[in-house]
Amino acid sequence: MSNVNQNPERLLAIPVKKSDPVDLYRPLRKFVATKYSESDAQKVESVIETLDKCRRDMVERGDLSLPMQRDCLIHYFKCLCMVEPLFTAISSDADADPITFVWYDAFFSEHENGVSSQRNSIQLEKAAVIFNLGAICSQIGASCDRTTSLGRHLAMDAFNAAANFFYKLWTVFAKDVSATLDLSLLLAKTLHRLCSAQASELNLQQRLHHNNTNDDASSVSFESVSQNYRAVSVMILRNLPATEHILAFDRTWITHLSQKLTFFQVEALQRKSSILPESQQPLVISLVSPLDDDAESVTEKLVSAACNYNCGDPWTRELEHQPRIPFIDLFLSEYSPFKIMDGGKLVAYPWDMPPPYPTNLAFLSSSSSSHILAFPLKKCEPLDLYDSLRNYFVLKYSESVAKKVEGLLQMLNKLRGEMQRDDIPLPVRRDCLIRYFKCLCMIQPLFPMTSSPNPPIFVWYNAFNPQEVSSQHNIYLEMASVLFNLGALCTHIALSSDTTTNQGHRIAIDALNDASYWFLLLNSVTMSASATVDLSKNCSDMLREIISAEIADLNCLPHSRYDRSSFPGYPVSSLYRKAYDLLTVGTLAENLVQSSIPQYLESKINSHHVNTAPTDVSEEFLLRYCKDKSLLPEECQPPCLDLLSEAGPVMIKDGNLVANLRGSDVAMEEMSLPETTVTLP
What we know:
mainly alpha, two-stranded antiparallel sheet, 23 helices, 9 strands, 5% strand, BRO1_dom, BRO1_sf
């Protein structure tokens, strides 16, 4: 790269807001006991306790690492979403004990307007938490070792996450808050643009590194980065309060931004003048980056593939308007820190307590519902992934590179063995499949392993016709089969739920919603897997139509919490008819004629009546909890940052991928527990 001006290596990290301590437990529990009942207070006591602990740790503990601070803030935000109805009620109750939140300006707390103190203002609290999430992510990004490919990738994703948090602050949370200048719409927008600019710079650096030559980087990319920095500079310099605010915090920010802008402007102009004619430019098209021969970037490529699981990969784009429903995790997942127990009691485990968490399986029963059909699971042949993958790393790279990813390979192999077991509870098996799928996403760039003398061959049988088999060295066959089994397993969970009770009825509907999600994802992955008919798009479409009809059917039960008027469209009988029509066409008719599906659909073509049921305080908490899925979308929580946390099956330690047994649902007796201290790459 030609350098008329040196590019400043420094990246700007946003400071966090400080707050005064406040007791949340006593006034909130007292209010619930007074306005609802003591039994209601006991139902939600665990949530209020965890909320109070999260805030105390967030404000008072100075020993938390940056990833731990991020975990704490996300946990606290989810708790805030759950208890928001209480703050709304307290604000209009003169007899309730007030809760006063005091927050200081992150940039200039000594300013005359540097403190904001408001009573019962959960809007201020949520805005401040979102600000700090953006600030912490920016600090994670700035602290990563950007001399390594993995460090640059983590830094880029951290700044992207920070940009998305500040975008949420700008467009949602700061709109109705009268507070310090750091929470103003202008500064929130400015910080969003600043973090976006730094993320785009890191993305450009990563591209330059992978291309191994500066000539492969387009002048357009440099111009785009310069435009981002120009926008930030203009937003600060054209607003006097913002300028004074930034200068009071750190005078070098303005100079730094000017140097960044100048560097990328000059570089873009120089590259533009040396561009080849269009007819001489090479055509490069790549949807997924395969692993190359650069051993230093191997770990980064695997981590990058993990992010593709739900962050912009071509096969997940159609899921943007269908986020996963979190209710089912509240009931059954060992990895959700929030749980619904007997009698509707809510339990919130502390943010710093690693999974797995105790789960009450009493909601599942041996009785079955006539409203639900459980789809059969696909079967597969056993396969030792560890040896074949590790040998491939040794052959293609080196023994030292193989050791870097050994923890991931051990976990991958163990999860594959566990997912085939029929003797473990359905929810545990579901957790295992989800984690195995995420690990598969990490190794996907390895395939096809053309240089391996012993590549893994995946063998899967048709779920509806076991005589039909598919045997391929194709990672997409494995991924598609796992997604099919996730969807099918959720229908088994729905079938085993006691739909005569409110909780069982809820689990059944939420499990079916989850099944529909996995079959929708299967639609995209199966495009790259030529396999048995059960993995075809026609089949998954038909199965999703059956699920849609069953959900509508369950909503017609007398104790349903929904009203039929909120479900416009076809009557239930028409939904079953639509699924039946898909079933009786083409290859599906030939393959599924001997299954129980045709007879089931024929018996279900009818309609039902609907009533509604009241809600209580725990119901309100649950609905608010699910709201955080839209308030904190996946862009704010990139999977690779979770690899710095202690809650997943694999974590990054000293640039290596290691099995995180504290965050695994599988006991691996032969492996020792790794250290839990995380060092940012």
